[in-house]
Amino acid sequence: MEMRRVCFLLQVRPDRLDEYRERHASVWPEMRAALHESGWHNYSLFCREDGLLVGYLETEDFEAARAAMERTGVNARWQAEMAPFFQDLDGRPDEGMLPLTEVFHLD
């Protein structure tokens, strides 16, 4: 099966941006392992100074990868801790990951 590229946007509260960056400088080892085991590859987060967060990952099946993460206990704990960092978000951050439509890719 071919890998699918997934990109999404979220908005980090600008007043919490430094702490958000600090938290991601030391993501829990069990969270990193769960992402890898659930089929998240080349997962990266990029952030502008105004808090605009761009996420990118590659996976065979994004919905299956999200569902696999949802079945882990570590994901529930991580999402609960990360939720206060975001603005304009109803629910958990991982529920707000709405894939953007890819319009160009240079292979």
Automatic annotation (TrEMBL):
Enzyme class: isomerase
EC number: 5.1.3.32
GO BP of this protein: rhamnose catabolic process
Organism name: Spinactinospora alkalitolerans
Residue stretches spanning the membrane: none
Alphabetical UniProt keywords: Isomerase
SUPFAM superfamilies: Dimeric alpha+beta barrel
Listed name of the protein: L-rhamnose mutarotase
GO MF entries: L-rhamnose mutarotase activity
InterPro entries, alphabetized: Dimeric_a/b-barrel, Rham/fucose_mutarotase
